[in-house]
Structure formats: C-alpha cells, structure tokens
Amino acid sequence: MHLIMGIHAITEVLLYAPHRFIRVLTAMPKAEGRKSELIELCMKKNIPVAIASFDALTKMAGSDSHQSFVAEIKDREFLALKDFLLQEHSLVLMLDQIFDPQNFGALLRSAECFGADAAIFSKNRGSDLSPVVAKASCGASELLTLIRVANLAEAVSQFQEAGFEAVAALLNPQAKSLSQFHFPQKTLLIVGSEGEGIQPLIQKRANHAVYIPMQGKIQSLNVAQATATLLYAYTAQKG
Amino acid sequence: MHLIMGIHAITEVLLYAPHRFIRVLTAMPKAEGRKSELIELCMKKNIPVAIASFDALTKMAGSDSHQSFVAEIKDREFLALKDFLLQEHSLVLMLDQIFDPQNFGALLRSAECFGADAAIFSKNRGSDLSPVVAKASCGASELLTLIRVANLAEAVSQFQEAGFEAVAALLNPQAKSLSQFHFPQKTLLIVGSEGEGIQPLIQKRANHAVYIPMQGKIQSLNVAQATATLLYAYTAQKG
Q: What's the pTM value of the predicted model, to 2 decimals?
C-alpha cells in the first residue's frame, strides 16, 4: 500500500484505475466545487471515504500540499525490464538523476500524455515514487508502465539488444538539432537533471544526442519542458 | 528596486544585464561549487556583495528557496504596448490567469529560450513579478521584454490591428491539432492556467485555437510544458 495526494491526481487515478484504491481520506475543509465532485466520484466508484484532520493528512503524506485529499492505493507492479522487452514497444522515457520530485512527476505526466510505452528509472540515481511525485504527475505515476532497475547503463544495452536506439537529450559536439533530427522507430529517450545531466557512462552508450535549438540568452529549458518538447516532436514524426 | 533570488537566476542576469544590479546579499553557508563561482562572478562584474543571515534573506525574499542568494536589482521598464507595436515583431506570449508563480516563471523562461519578442500579462489576472517568479524563470523575468496591461482582451485587439493573429491554446470544437497547424507569421500565442483556462472574452477574440494532440489517458500537460511545446513548434516552422 502507498499514498497519493492531491485532487487532480486522485481524480485521474479514480477514473482510470479505481480497482487500485483502498480508501480516500479527506479533511474536507470546504467541500465545494472540485472537492465535492471528488467525493461524489468516490461514492460512485464505491471507494470508502474517511475523515481525517488536515494535519493528520500532512503527516501521512509528508507534505502539506495534499489539498485535503490523500488516498491509500494498492501497490502497483513494476514491470521487469526483460518482460517489457518481450513485448512490442516503440517509445520509452529514461529518467537519469532526476532528484527533484516535482520534475520527476512532471516527466511521468508528459510520458503518459504523449503515449510513451513506459518510463524507466533507478531509485539509486534519482527520486523514487512518493505522494509529491504522484501529485506532480497528475496521477501518471499510477497509470504509466514503470520499470525500476538498479543500473540504468546496463538497461540501455538491454534496450539496444532489443532493437531500440538510445537518444540522449544533451549538448555535445555530435548532438543534432531537434529540428533536423529523425527519431528512430524504437526510441529510448534519455533525459537527465539540470544540475547533474546524464551519467557519462550512459552518454557514451547512447546512439544519438539531440538538443532543442534555443534562440534566447538563457541556454536551457527545465528538464520537464524540454522533455515535453522532445516527446511531442517524436509523436509528430511518428504521427 | 526589487529582489530576485536563486543561484541560477542571479547568474543568468549577471551574465546578460550586470548593469541592473545594486548589490548581492549572501548567507554563504558553504561557499563551494556554484556558490563560490557566483561570488567570483560578482567580483568580476564589480557588484557589491554583502553578508546577511539565511533567515534575513528568507524574510526579504518572502521565500526560503533563495539558495543563500538574494540580489537587489534596479527596476526594469515595462514596455508600453503601443510602443512595442511600433516595432517589427513576430512572436509574443500572452499569459492569461496564470496565478501560480512557478508556472508564471517557467512560462517566461520558455518565452525567453525560444526567442519570443515579449511576454504580455495583466497583474489583475494572474501572478505579478516576485522573487519566486524570477527564480522559476531562471532570470528570464529580467531579460525578456515584458508588457503589463490592465486589460488583456483589449490588448488582443491592439495586436490584431498591428497585423498579429491571436492563437489560443485550448480545446474547443474549432481547435486544430498542433501537428496540422501552421502558425501565422505574426503570432500572439495565448495560454491560460490549468484551472481557469483562458477568459471567454479572449477566447472569442482569438483568430485560431490550437491543441496539442495527446495519446494517453491524462488529457493535459501542465501549462509550462504545453507552452514549451507550442513555442518549439512555432520556431521549428519559422526556422
């Protein structure tokens, strides 16, 4: 069992994976608008709703940004990489060294929105799942296929053996501008954090490096915005 | 005079607009890595650096996410819309009802990165500038041309009279998929908040509506990611 929080995130998971819910806890300070809609949705889906104080929710979730709603959710399964690679897939997002839970969640949200088949990450090299991540992901943390591995560099090789090409989002002398880049049919898109970037070992194993052409003075978008742009460009090409 | 905060934001503004600095205040808890680099940069640019406690900086900035650095900056000029429209421009981002300062900052950052000529907003209908916005914008709040008006709907008409077409990012029956959309040569791109959207009066005045095609269950990106995608698509077309 684990926790997710926030009105939008809980609503999305209720809509698409109601069987995962154990119960919803709410402080219901003013049950109006989106809040009462969420309680009605719980009733409709036969999810038990219990009352708890705002502070109790904060303690449970480890954050006060729960918007008076925390849900207890059955643990999801992580897919083993070898099982995932037995199936036919075309787009996977690899998160390397994304330690900021807001960015981590935003990246899962983009991956879900743009129809990526899975996201892969290492909890040793970045954020792990948490209520903050679930909220920032708008529930995508519960809806997207997730693969959690010990060693991302090894995973890159396994993807390559399965016919994927690894595309690292980074600026190096070999990098191609996104506007001239043609994504491989089976793309493992690798993104790193703003501070740490992508591990050198993973950079070396990548088949391609791609950058987003910038025209201003500030030379980089944040990783969540950059990744949304890259995923859009992939989907626009593969249509 | 106003304040900006955060290592990255202060560094960017120091690099591109050092004349705007009055002084930098730092708590310097451990002046290593990027922190000592920033102090060295201040020395090089002849910017006075003063020491203050971490808590004093928090009180000044109204936020504890200053990373031990707050800078006093000379107020920027806001450009009057009529003066802006006398010049030749092609891409302007309009922020409608963006109340979240993190999103507001992220949008300014995207606008700057993708070479938008200006961002226009109404402080009555969204966030105003603040140290939190400056940090989230990575300094773009100080580097990008900003236009602040009382009435955004009227501003849309003024842009249209000057030859711009207004493109609203929204889902309505007339909206076109971004993958099929051709941006007008002079584009006023209008984005709204996730909760509030774009004001109906502004939606009505828009020449075009465009949406980003989604393939997952969650039907929308956050506004910062969506806007980065839209701005990229504009620059990719106009190349």
A: 0.89
- Kindly state whether A230 is in contact with chain B, defined as any CB-CB distance less than 8 angstroms: no
Q: Which residues of A fall within a CB distance of 8 Å from B143?
A: 216-218
Give the tens place of pLDDT for each residue, B166-207. Answer: 999 997 778 999 999 999 999 999 999 877 789 999 999 999
**What is the per-residue pLDDT for A115?**
93
Beta bridge partners of B193: B197
| Of the candidates B13, B55, B61, B57, the residue with the CA atom closest to the CA atom of residue B38 | B13
Please list every residue in chain A whose beta carbon sits closer than 8 Å to the beta carbon of residue B218.
12, 109, 112-113, 138-140, 143
- The CATH fold assigned to A2-73 is 60s Ribosomal Protein L30; Chain: A; (3.30.1330)
Instruction: Work out the burial of residue A165: count CB atoms within 10 Å of its CB; fewer than 13 is exposed, 13-18 middle, 19 or more buried.
Output: middle
Q: Give B233→chain A minimum CA distance, Å.
A: 8
Q: Residues 161-220, chain B: which have Cβ within 8 Å of A?
A: 178-179, 212-220
Q: What is the ipTM of this complex?
A: 0.86
**Whether B17 contacts chain A with CB within 8 A:** no
> Is residue B182 packed enough to be buried (19+ CB in 10 Å), middle (13-18) or exposed (0-12)?
exposed
- Who among B109, B213, B235 is closest to A218 (CB)? B109
For chain B, the DSSP string reads -EEEESHHHHHHHHHH-GGGEEEEEE--SS--THHHHHHHHHHHTT--EEE--HHHHHHHHTSS-STTEEEEEPPPPPPPHHHHHHS---EEEEEESB--HHHHHHHHHHHHHTT-SEEEE-GGGB----HHHHHHTTTHHHHS-EEE-S-HHHHHHHHHHTT-EEEEE---TT-EEGGG----SSEEEEEEBTTTBS-HHHHHH-SEEEE----SSS----HHHHHHHHHHHHHHHH-
For A45-86, the pLDDT digits (tens) are: 999 999 899 999 999 999 999 999 999 999 888 899 999 999
Sequence spans of domains, chain A: 2-73, 81-238
Q: A81-238, what's its fold?
A: Alpha/beta knot (3.40.1280)
Q: Do A225 and B221 touch (CB under 8 A)?
A: no
